[in-house]
């Protein structure tokens, strides 16, 4: 039997373990039928038989035996005289099967077949990888850090496939070392220069959603549904949840006893503050909950313009706005409303106060802007907060705060 051992001659065959057997056999048949067409002009009367267990391949040629002198198609027919030279028992009308020696194709043709096979297998492996990860977009996985670069991190999955975690998809506090395992969500699969690129993310809301699904069985079972997640990675996240079972408190279930369920997620997200709120179709209540931890006094809502004016006590304004405005930004994203925050001054109507802009001669403009940023737009609103509180909420130095408070106090003493 003329055959060729594919395991030795075609090393790529061994590397194609992710390719199913029927596909592999079809590729091999196609490659060798191409050789046959080049050598004989047609592959109609040839059978390519592949044994994927042993890595053997053989090619059988079929021809019909005809009377001498009646051969019309040499590829499909053979004269009786020639047939009996191969096997004396043959008769006219029978099918003659003959092994084709692979080496008859010549060294150059076999080398070309190897290259074609390697290329086809490479394409198949790419397609398998693309399909595998395209079907898993949105899933969470654990992968090993292989290389850390300035703009991205290269990871390897359990099968050795390369995955990329770009800097833009990393939490600002993330720090990775080679060899450690990290968790991320599969964001997308791209093709760059005909090569599949699997992009992971740790900043996507989907990552937080999947972490919650792992930690909270009620979400996994469908008893609690996540309505929306908004994030400022590494800073704060807001999660709106709803329960389909009146007996289950969705917020309590997500947070867990003494925060047991949420703590693990907070650590994974580098101490990102996570506000879990109960979703409601009542927009007034949803806006109120979205501004957690601040407590709202009252609000005016314009449904048509998707705009809300929220009034809070002076000490709640900075809580509603949050550090660098993150809290109010996330509340806007969660509710879909543009939210403006105002100090509720009803209790102070009869109390004398002075606008901070009146102090531009004594206090620098940027200091006034910083105080306004935390909701303090009048002299009394600044003095209502302690120096320690002002230092904690603003970027002002202790000495600057003391000077500001002194100027404001003197003005009131004059009055």
TrEMBL record:
<keyword id="KW-0804">Transcription</keyword>
<dbReference type="GO" id="GO:0031564">
    <property type="term" value="P:transcription antitermination"/>
</dbReference>
<dbReference type="GO" id="GO:0003723">
    <property type="term" value="F:RNA binding"/>
</dbReference>
<dbReference type="InterPro" id="IPR025249">
    <property type="entry name" value="TF_NusA_KH_1st"/>
</dbReference>
<protein>
    <recommendedName>
        <fullName>Transcription termination/antitermination protein NusA</fullName>
    </recommendedName>
</protein>
<dbReference type="InterPro" id="IPR015946">
    <property type="entry name" value="KH_dom-like_a/b"/>
</dbReference>
<dbReference type="GO" id="GO:0003700">
    <property type="term" value="F:DNA-binding transcription factor activity"/>
</dbReference>
<dbReference type="InterPro" id="IPR058582">
    <property type="entry name" value="KH_NusA_2nd"/>
</dbReference>
<feature type="domain" description="K Homology">
    <location>
        <begin position="307"/>
        <end position="395"/>
    </location>
</feature>
<dbReference type="Pfam" id="PF13184">
    <property type="entry name" value="KH_NusA_1st"/>
</dbReference>
<keyword id="KW-0963">Cytoplasm</keyword>
<keyword id="KW-0889">Transcription antitermination</keyword>
<dbReference type="InterPro" id="IPR009019">
    <property type="entry name" value="KH_sf_prok-type"/>
</dbReference>
<dbReference type="InterPro" id="IPR013735">
    <property type="entry name" value="TF_NusA_N"/>
</dbReference>
<feature type="domain" description="K Homology">
    <location>
        <begin position="233"/>
        <end position="306"/>
    </location>
</feature>
<keyword id="KW-0694">RNA-binding</keyword>
<comment type="function">
    <text>Participates in both transcription termination and antitermination.</text>
</comment>
<dbReference type="InterPro" id="IPR004087">
    <property type="entry name" value="KH_dom"/>
</dbReference>
<dbReference type="Pfam" id="PF08529">
    <property type="entry name" value="NusA_N"/>
</dbReference>
<dbReference type="GO" id="GO:0006353">
    <property type="term" value="P:DNA-templated transcription termination"/>
</dbReference>
<comment type="similarity">
    <text>Belongs to the NusA family.</text>
</comment>
<dbReference type="InterPro" id="IPR036555">
    <property type="entry name" value="NusA_N_sf"/>
</dbReference>
<dbReference type="GO" id="GO:0005829">
    <property type="term" value="C:cytosol"/>
</dbReference>
<keyword id="KW-0805">Transcription regulation</keyword>
<dbReference type="InterPro" id="IPR012340">
    <property type="entry name" value="NA-bd_OB-fold"/>
</dbReference>
<dbReference type="Pfam" id="PF26594">
    <property type="entry name" value="KH_NusA_2nd"/>
</dbReference>
<dbReference type="InterPro" id="IPR030842">
    <property type="entry name" value="TF_NusA_bacterial"/>
</dbReference>
<keyword id="KW-0806">Transcription termination</keyword>
<dbReference type="InterPro" id="IPR010213">
    <property type="entry name" value="TF_NusA"/>
</dbReference>
<comment type="subunit">
    <text>Monomer. Binds directly to the core enzyme of the DNA-dependent RNA polymerase and to nascent RNA.</text>
</comment>
């Amino acid at each position: 039997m003329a055959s060729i051992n594919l395991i030795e001659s075609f090393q790529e065959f061994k590397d194609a373990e992710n390719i199913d057997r029927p596909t592999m056999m079809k590729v091999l048949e196609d490659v060798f039928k191409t050789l046959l067409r080049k050598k004989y002009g047609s592959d109609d009367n040839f059978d390519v038989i592949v044994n994927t267990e042993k890595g053997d391949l053989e090619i059988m040629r079929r021809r019909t035996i005809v009377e001498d002198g009646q051969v019309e198609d040499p590829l499909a027919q053979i004269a009786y005289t020639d047939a009996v030279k191969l096997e004396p028992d043959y008769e006219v009308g029978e099918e003659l099967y003959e092994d084709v020696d692979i080496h008859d194709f010549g060294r150059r043709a076999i080398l070309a077949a190897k290259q074609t096979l390697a290329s086809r297998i490479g394409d198949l492996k790419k397609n398998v990888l693309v399909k595998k990860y395209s079907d898993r977009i949105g899933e969470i996985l654990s992968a090993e850090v292989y290389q850390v670069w300035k703009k991205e991190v290269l990871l390897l999955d359990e099968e050795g496939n390369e995955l990329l975690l770009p800097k833009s998809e990393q939490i600002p506090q993330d720090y990775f070392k080679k060899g450690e395992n990290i968790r991320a969500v599969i964001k997308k699969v791209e093709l760059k220069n005909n090569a599949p690129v699997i992009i992971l993310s740790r900043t996507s809301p989907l990552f937080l959603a999947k972490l919650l699904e792992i930690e909270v069985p009620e979400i996994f079972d469908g008893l609690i549904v996540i309505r929306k997640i908004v994030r400022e990675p590494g800073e704060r996240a807001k999660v709106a949840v709803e329960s389909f079972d009146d007996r289950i408190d969705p917020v309590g279930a997500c947070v867990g006893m003494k925060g047991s369920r949420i703590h693990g997620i907070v650590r994974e997200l580098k101490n990102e503050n996570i506000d879990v709120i109960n979703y409601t179709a009542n927009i007034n209540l949803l806006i109120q909950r979205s501004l957690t931890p601040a407590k709202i006094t009252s609000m005016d809502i314009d449904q048509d313009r998707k705009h809300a004016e929220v009034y809070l006590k002076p000490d709640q304004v900075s809580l509603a706005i949050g550090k660098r405005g993150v809290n109010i930004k996330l509340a806007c994203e969660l509710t879909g409303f543009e939210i403006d925050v105002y100090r509720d001054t009803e209790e102070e109507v009869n109390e004398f106060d002075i606008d901070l802009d009146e102090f531009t001669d004594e206090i620098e403009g940027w200091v006034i802007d910083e105080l306004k940023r935390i909701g303090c737009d009048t002299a009394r609103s600044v003095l209502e907060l302690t120096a320690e509180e002002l230092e904690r909420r603003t970027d002002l130095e202790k000495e600057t705060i003391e000077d500001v408070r002194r100027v404001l106090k003197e003005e009131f003493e004059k009055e």
